[in-house]
Fold this protein.
Amino acid sequence: MSLPSSLLQALQQELEQDREALLRAVEELSARYRGEASPRGGRFASTRAEVLAYAAARLPATFAAVQGVFLEAAERLHRFSPGTLLDLGAGPATAAWAALAVWPDIQRVVLVEREPEMIRLGRRLAAAAPHAALREAAWMRLDVAAGVAGLEADLVVASYVLGELGPGTVAALVEQAWRAAREVLVLVEPGTPAGFRRIAAARERLIQLGAFVAAPCPHQEACPLGEGDWCHFARRVQRSRLHRQLKGGELAYEDEKYSYLVASKRPAAPARGRVIRRPRAHKGHVELDLCTPGGVERLVVSRKAGALYRWARKAQWGSAFENEKPRNGNSPSGA
Ligand SMILES: C[S@@+](CC[C@H](N)C(=O)[O-])C[C@H]1O[C@@H](n2cnc3c(N)ncnc32)[C@H](O)[C@@H]1O
């Protein structure tokens, strides 16, 4: 995955500044996210240097994650074509860029963000967008913890934001976001145990409120993952030279891990199963851990399984499982 070229160019222009200062700001931001430095009243990035550091270090990865989620949502919600988008805790409008890459017919975008410097950066980046909906997006400087009543859109997204809210506020925002969604609510969080717990709690509440889970879960039942386990996925992000310098690594890519939920007001077409860990290819067989309506299952697919084996060889962590399960020889066993 790489960023849309217009976004990449606009971002590179923003980052043509004192590299040393940017490097320092990235290190400080990372320390705040790792919990090694105080986020000053829950504010992780508020100065100009900090929001640029966010854009440099995190935007490509959060874009990759949320775009992956939107692609899966499009797969599961066959006739869903949002005309309006509401992005809560929008940052530099990362999720809106990703949404327009998947649904270019979105006509109206509303971005809610608390930090004025983030809004300024988001506006400068959006000026380079090929989509009028993004160039002309409405930015609202609001604290989402105080509520988002009165806002509505076909698609509502909260990407990497629940974790920045106080624990008492998350559940209320999830409910308000659900009410604001005319059709679909998408939540994305870091792929950590804490990020997953927030997604799992939101899922439980949204199902009580009548939501249809479109992805990643293949069912509406209680999450079958046991204590200490967490459902998350990964997207590979290409690193630019600057990105490598800032992250202090030599690798040409990084894997962004995330947890997510796509909740729909209308029945969706969830997958029959979901590959919830990296598949393990062995000589002559592939092992897959699947979440299914019957719980978590280990599927062992041998070469003899023909088309299923060919699918299993290509399956990735996060892939939807749409096949018939084999009856003999390759039968799933409890994981
Ligand atoms: C980690 S960033 C995520 C930005 C963007 N959604 C993305 O996926 O890249 C979290 C954003 O939420 C904003 N935010 C945090 N708490 C907020 C609040 N209470 N009201 C509005 N925005 C908030 C932060 O200022 C920041 O821009």
